[in-house]
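Following the same procedure, backbone shapes were mapped to integers, yielding the entry below.
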Amino acid sequence: MLALSFPAAAFDTNCYVLAPGPGEECLVVDPGIGVEDTLAEVLREHRLRPAAVLLTHGHLDHVYSVTPVCGGTTAAYIHADDRYRLEDPLASVGPAMVAMMEAQFGRSATWAEPETVVDVADGQRLEVAGLALDVLHAPGHTEGSVMFALDAVPDGLAPGEGLDRTVVSGDVLFAGSIGRTDLPGGDTAAMQRSLRDVVLPLADSTLVLTGHGPATTMARERGTNPYLRGLDA
């Protein structure tokens, strides 16, 4: 499996491109703020064609470029509980944040929903672009936060040996931390349940591609992440 990643222009949100190999259809995961030019270069260099855009949740820094990336022909996939966030994610960040973005990028911040949005649900298996992914609903950061799990490990991204599965974790799990729960729609108790019931059961041989920051592994997080201590899977 080919996996490519680069940070967005704001908030260091990781945008991922997943494909069976060069010259194939691909999945774009979490196209955040200001990713269009870099994404176009990545797609051109590896001769990739987006078949779908996957969203781990509906926060602005993960979805801002979804509509231009979809381009009117490609569907965006998001959990039903975060579907409402695509109506206008700009409204949730406040005028000060919008003004900061406009000052940074030199143009007015605008929003339009993707033409085609597909709701996903916990336990659903998606088979798109020659890849099979399982949807793992893990609320807490938002109501509809999900992780996408694949029974494959990309060459060049695995930070260790013996890995046999990949999870794109969004803002559920980071290297040494977890997503915050104090934003609208966040829920500390739900996050604790998600960590216990969804994250901890993942095998130690799982590569974790996080929404922000470096990749990690479940073995590393189980042993060092303070937010996973004291939880019983």
About this structure: Residues 94-105 form the longest helix (12 residues).
